[in-house]
Amino acid sequence: MSAHVLALLVGSNPLPNYVTARYLLDRSRTDTGIAPVPDVILLLSSKETVPIGETIIRKLGLPVGQYVHRTLMEGQRDPHTISDSLRKAVDSISAKTSIASLHLNITGGTKPMAVFATLAGLSLPKDCPFLVSDLDPQRHIIRVTSWCQEEVQESYLPPRGTLLSVPALGLQVKDILQLHESRFKIVDNGSSAPIKFHSQPYSEKFYAESLGKDSQTWFEHLNSIKVHRGRSKNSLLESFEKVMDYRPFIEVFPSMAPYFTSDGRLSQDVDIVGLLRLFQGGWLEDMVLRAFRDLAGSGQIALSDYRKGVEVEYDRRPAEIDLIAMRGYQMYLVSCTRSSQIKDVKRKAFEALYRAEQLGGEHAQVVVVSVMSNVSDRTIPFSRENNLSELKKDLAQYDARRNCHLIGIEELRGEVEGRGTLRSKLAEIIGGVAV
What we know:
By secondary structure, this protein is an alpha/beta fold. It contains 14 helices and 13 strands.
């Protein structure tokens, strides 16, 4: 019995290797004439990416005997080391069974690894079909070039459509986090439900109130209360009562009246932690979360998962991601801020771009949601420099516009006014229809 071999060059991000292997391992595929289902997976890692290769093996559920994991040590840029490692690994497999085909995926690893592994593959006996593939981050297809008996052919996987519509590649947020478990510690997979601080959900009228001109002062007051693990609820209640003035507060947020007693005190059945999280930016995250829920539920966009409040640790440093939405294997990282200052929104954008590339690679997209004006308004001097049009110019200087999308106050206000502008903008950014 002969074996089809898939060789993966392991880079710093495991997602491209995992997506490619998961697609090719699917025995229900109808395009195996282009690229056979692999019987053995060969992974070539550098010294630094060995843990990532091991994570890919575990996540794919490969049993012992179905994979070979070779380490280049410090030779990930050395031509001889790369070529020799691939040949020896192939020889170790062919010593046990004949090789029906060798498929090299060059999406991961260094550029020298891609070049010299390809050259090594081309030096194999000509009767062994040799395929080289790459996962295209723009078109979401696997480009395949095959050599057999001096004949060269170019094909695409899948032959029709894109990988984003393949059900087997509809990843969950936890899948992305688990792929990075060698570098990130998962603290919380997040939630797909809005904040709950009472037995009854808070009214969506609160979103309109939060965008009102007098809301910012109260957000600043309540944002001064530090919510962290270990702080008691009694301590939080004391701080809340110090900044709370019931009548002016209810004038700005009338939808909050049911959660207070007749004498203006917070009801005992209100969870103070949840309430504070709502006022400290959680309302904006909830607004986006509800939009995702409505879009996915109506079939306007195909989301395999969406979560808010995802918490991880990197080198013992905690990081919280506001929202993550998954369209197939493509990650959309959403960062929300109540700020309308360009310097704050720009900082959030670059932080989000850095974290998105860490987790989702070059396939990932970023959405920054803020209350900043979309364009300059002559009647508002502050908006002349602090608007999304100016921020887009800044992002363009760093070649970041392609992966970063901006949503501002106009889309938020249009949403609370019933025009569906936030949902329309998200559908435009993510695109696609449910399959």
